[in-house]
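note to self — DONT lose this again. spent like an hour looking for the file last time. sequence + predicted structure for the chain T wanted, 222 res
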Amino acid sequence: MGIRSKLAEIIDGSYIVVLEKVNNGLINLNEFDTGKIIHHQNQVEATIWFRHFGQYATDNISKALGTGTSYGKKGGLDGLAIKLKRESFAIKYNYRHEHNTVTVNEERAITIPFFEVDQKLRQSSNFSKRNKFGEFEPMHLYYLEDIVDCIESEFAGWVEENLKTREISDEEKENGDFPQEWDTCLTDESNELFAEKKSQLELAFAKATGVFYEFNGGLIIE
């Protein structure tokens, strides 16, 4: 008997990450913008509060409303609540919300970089689909935590093979640029390459799973 599919639930108070550009009049959201779910009636959409709106007098919405941000002003704009469809955002990973037991369809899972079909980890579901021969066969699922573990291991291998490090000088430590206990760091070129690959990976993972997880590739990130 197969396992049941389980999606990451929309829960009030959860933090989210935007997965696609959203443009509606003066409302502009970019990939990786973060917000907090403040209301939902179903698992299809949610009302999300974005803190960064109205923080500066130069903000387009602040200008349109004529609101000020100087000290002494009363009733200032403190963020904006925006309704988004579920496919437009991913819920930030939180082990307390049982995200580890979320399941992911194999067809979606293999779209994530560094992940491929794994016979040991794949689980038969209680749903079936027709194969190319017209026969019914069980759909396969993976637990989110298994996907994360596989990707972290493969990503760490990529980091080791493709990125370069340099020694950190005493002056850099004294200036507070790096922690005292660090001896090496990525070169500037490798740091840019890592950031690009990390963003691509996290976005693909979030779109495939509905959960946003921060991968570090075995690096310590401050």
